[in-house]
Amino acid sequence: MSLSLVDITLTYPDGDSRLTALDRVTLEVPRGSLTAVVGPSGSGKSSLLAVAATLITPDAGTVTIDGTPTTGLSRRRLTELRRRTIGVVFQQPNLLPSLTAAEQLQVMARIDGRSPAKARPRALELLDAVGLADQAGRRPHQLSGGQRQRVNIARALMNDPTVLLVDEPTSALDRERGAAVIDLLTRLTRQRGTATVLVTHDRAHLTAADRVAEVHDGRLRLAAPPSADTTAVPGHMP
Q: What is the pTM assigned to this prediction?
C-alpha cells in the first residue's frame, strides 16, 4: 500500500468553535491504482488532498506514505519525503514562462539537489511518455492548454514518486482534451505503478477509476466506479 490515511480527523477554527473538514476518514490507495475523489464544493476534497500531500497535519489519525508513517517527522524530513515520493498535479499548470518544456522538468532535479543537465534524459523520456517528445524545446506560450497540462503531469513524475495527487486537471480544458488527460493519467498510473488520487468535478471521468471516494461534510464513502453508460445520466451514482 503506497498511500494510507487511517481515521483522519481535521478541524479548522471557526469563531469560538471548530469546523470539521474531515471526519474520521480512512482511505487506502495501492500502487498502480487510481482513486477518484468527488463531492460538492466545501465537502472536504481539498483538505483530503492536502493531508495526503503532508501539507497539513491532521488533528488525529495516521498518514503513511510508501511505508513511512508521517506522524512525528520533522519539517525537514517531511519536505524530503514530499519531494521524493509525492508528485502533485495542480489545477493550473503554473509553468515558468521563460523555460522550455524540458527545462520545466529539469528544474525539479535542481530542487532535489541533482544536476539539471544530467536529468535531461529523464525529462525527455517523460515528455515522450506524455506525447510531447516533439515539444521539448517549446515554451508555455507556444503550447496549447492540453499540452501545458501534460507538461504539468510529466513534471510531477520527474522525481519518480510512488504517490501521485491530482487536483481538477481538466477544469480549464474542453471535454475532448480533458478526456485525453484522464486517459493519460490512467495509463501512467498503470505503467509507473503510482498510487494516484484524482480530485475531479466531472463524473464522466469516473469510469477511468478503480474506486470512487465520495466526500460529503467531511465524511468519505467508497464506491465502485460507474459504468460508461451511467455517467451519461447527470447526478447518477451507483
A: 0.90
